[in-house]
Every structure is written in structure tokens, then in C-alpha cells.
Design goal:
single chain, 251 residues, alpha+beta
């Protein structure tokens, strides 16, 4: 799609490309978290949603090494949201009436140990170009907190409750068997802003800086050892300065 000198991005074109993404996802979501797959399984993170998605790859220019990837599932409007990954965990009937193009973004990961902020900047610029090219009006996905101890993230959840709950007309409802209803549980808690931001996942912070909103509850996912919240970004609500910055990087 484009490059910035040190990194370049492209859409996966071959089965080997997709396998490379699944291998990086395994390192990030399974091995790095100390989880295991059934005996005899290949060291890949894969599921039935991969075939429905486009996979964006960020590679180091000089080596060709894959340093970041995520997948995107485009939809013509909200009537297709029931086939999304997030629909397994959230009742998204309210969003079924969304009248414009949307994209589910998921499985975002960076090589464990890489701390170069340029990777995240390039990845989001690639997403911005995709959104513009496809005329997408809603970007959504699941934003994950590592571990299932909700108390460890109490200030982060209190900040989400205070500032970032989804508009009522789009608000996801409870579907998963285990959830943390933080909007009601923490209604009397005043968040410590510094602590809240330090405990907020980087990807979710980026969504929020773009004007994103979240569900009023977190799903407890024991399989991946995470808590996650449904997250949406209406493109029309992205602050103009941030939109200009991402488009400038994307060329």
C-alpha cells in the first residue's frame, strides 16, 4: 500500500502471507501470554474469521520481516454485523441499523518486545488510507486488557464510564455469559487520570484519541486471558487534526 522509509505496508496476497500473520499472532496472543494450544497443533493463531478478512502487514523495509499485522472485515452496512467476530460476545442489534460501510478491525499485534512507536503510526496510517479508499464510516473491534482481574484496571474502566460510553442508539448489549458491568459497578468511583491512562491498552488509547466509544461492560474471555470492551470509531467524529496527521503519513 505505501511505505515511510523504515517500514512498508501491504495487504496479504498469498496463503503464506496469511500464515505469517497467524504465526505472529500466535507469538503475541498465545506464547507471550503463557497460553497453550492442544497437543499437535501448529504454532498459529487462526480461526474461521480469517477467510472473511483482509490482512494488513507492516514489514521492515530492509529485511522484509513482519513486525505488525491486523485483519479487517469490510461490511456494506450494519445489516452484516452479525457475521463479525465481535458478534460472538456482544448483542449488536442496535448497530444493525447503521446505514453506511463499516469495517471490523481485529487481531492487532506487534512483534513482542518491539517498542518503536513508528510501527503503530504506520499501521494506523494504512488503516486511514483503507478507510478513505473504501468510504468507511464506522471502524469497530474488541479492545483487550491483559488478564481477567478487573480490579487491576478499575481506574481505566472508571475513566471509560465517565467519558467514553457509546451513544445510546449504538450501545452494545450483554450477550457473553461472563461480563464485568463496569458502568454500573464503578458509578461512584472517580478515576485517577494518570493511573487510568497508564493501565489503558495502547490500541484502545488510540481509538479514544480518535473520538472512539466503548460498550458499558467488559467481556471476560478466559480462553485468551483477557477482558475486552467493544470499541467503535465513527469516522465523522475523528478530530480533524488527528485525521490530517494520519492522512499525511499515508500520503
Amino acid at each position: 500500500m505505501f511505505g515511510t522509509g523504515r517500514y512498508q505496508t501491504r495487504i496479504a496476497e498469498t496463503p503464506d502471507d496469511v500464515t505469517a500473520c497467524q504465526r505472529l499472532r500466535y507469538r503475541s496472543f498465545i506464547a507471550e501470554r503463557g497460553l497453550t494450544l492442544p497437543p499437535g497443533s501448529a504454532p498459529l493463531d487462526r480461526d474461521e474469521f480469517d477467510a472473511r478478512c483482509e490482512h494488513l502487514m507492516v514489514e521492515e523495509t530492509h529485511s522484509g520481516d513482519l513486525v505488525c499485522c491486523f485483519r479487517m472485515m469490510p461490511m456494506s452496512d450494519g445489516s452484516q454485523i452479525g457475521r463479525s467476530y465481535a458478534a460472538q460476545y456482544y448483542d449488536l442489534d442496535n448497530l444493525a441499523g447503521f446505514p453506511h460501510r463499516m469495517v471490523e478491525m481485529g487481531r492487532f499485534c506487534i512483534v513482542p518486545g518491539r517498542r518503536d512507536p513508528e510501527i503503530l503510526r504506520v499501521a494506523w496510517a494504512a488503516m486511514a488510507r483503507f478507510v478513505d479508499d473504501q468510504k468507511v464510516e464506522l471502524l469497530f473491534g474488541c479492545s483487550s486488557f491483559h488478564g481477567v482481574d478487573a480490579e487491576a484496571y478499575a481506574d481505566a474502566f472508571a475513566l471509560l464510564r465517565e467519558r467514553h460510553i457509546a451513544p445510546k442508539r449504538w450501545l452494545p448489549r450483554v450477550k457473553a455469559p461472563r461480563v464485568f458491568r463496569y458502568a454500573s459497578a464503578l458509578r461512584l468511583r472517580t478515576p485517577d487520570l494518570k493511573l487510568a491512562l497508564s493501565r489503558m491498552p495502547p490500541l484502545l488509547r488510540t481509538y479514544l484519541q480518535m473520538g472512539g466509544w466503548v460498550s458499558d461492560h467488559a467481556v471476560v474471555d478466559e480462553n485468551l486471558n483477557t477482558l475486552h470492551v467493544f470499541t467503535g470509531v465513527e469516522i465523522s467524529r475523528v478530530p480533524p487534526a488527528r485525521a490530517r496527521m494520519m492522512r499525511r503519513v499515508a500520503g
